[in-house]
Amino acid sequence: MKKNFYWMFAAILFCSAMTTVFTSCSKDDDNNNLEPQMEQITAKKATAWYAVSMGEDMLDVFDVEVTTSGPQIGKETKKLTKTKFSMADNDANVNDAGLVFTMSVKITRKAGFTPDASKSYKLGFGSAFAYEIIGTNGKSLIGDGEKSAIFSGLTIPGDKLEERIQRLIETWQTLDQKLEVHKTYYVYNGRKESYE
Fold first, then answer.
1. Contact 89, 48 (CB under 8 A)
2. Hey, which bits of 14-149 come out as E strands?
3. For the whole model, what pTM was predicted?
4. Run of H or E residues at 166
5. Residue 4 pLDDT exceeds 70
6. Per-residue model confidence (pLDDT) at position 41
7. Cα–Cα distance for residue pair 132/145, rounded to 1 Å
8. Which terminus of the chain is more exposed, N or C, with fewer CB under 10 A?
9. DSSP E strands: which ranges in 110-173?
10. Mean pLDDT over residues 25-46, rounded?
11. Are 103 and 128 in contact (CB under 8 A)?
12. Residue 62 has pLDDT above 60, yes or no
């Protein structure tokens, strides 16, 4: 009986030793295996849209100028002659220096305009600056804004318009909207964001 106990004890020790040897020889412990690296997605193209929409009497009362800039359209200022304006700078390739898109609106009182007290003026103003950035994988990395401008219309009696003209100009005037597109980040109106 004692002899069997020693043989059983020796067999257990042998099995334990073999398990330790085989465990330490596992292929999973090789440090030579490299895990596949994720491809970094960067910006490849960018598009910006610019739009303005106004009430039907706006251009009788105000001069409206829209200044836009972009890598493909350059910089231009247009004095609007219609109550709707839209344009786009499409699919510009992102370069190492980055791309810059801007839009601003300047509203001034039309020279020589005097309100007609017997008339009501249909006014209202809205502007939009939207963009989309496409990655090297062909998918949208980021997009924001509406491609068309929406305005809330208001009707002002001619005898009340004079006292409100300056306040309306201050309300509707649009400061520069600016988008900078770089390969690994973008900056919108001074706020830096990554694509993650």
1. yes
2. 43-54, 62-70, 74-79, 84-93, 99-109, 120-123, 125-135, 140-144
3. 0.77
4. helix 165-172
5. no
6. 86
7. 9
8. N
9. 120-123, 125-135, 140-144, 154-157
10. 68
11. no
12. yes
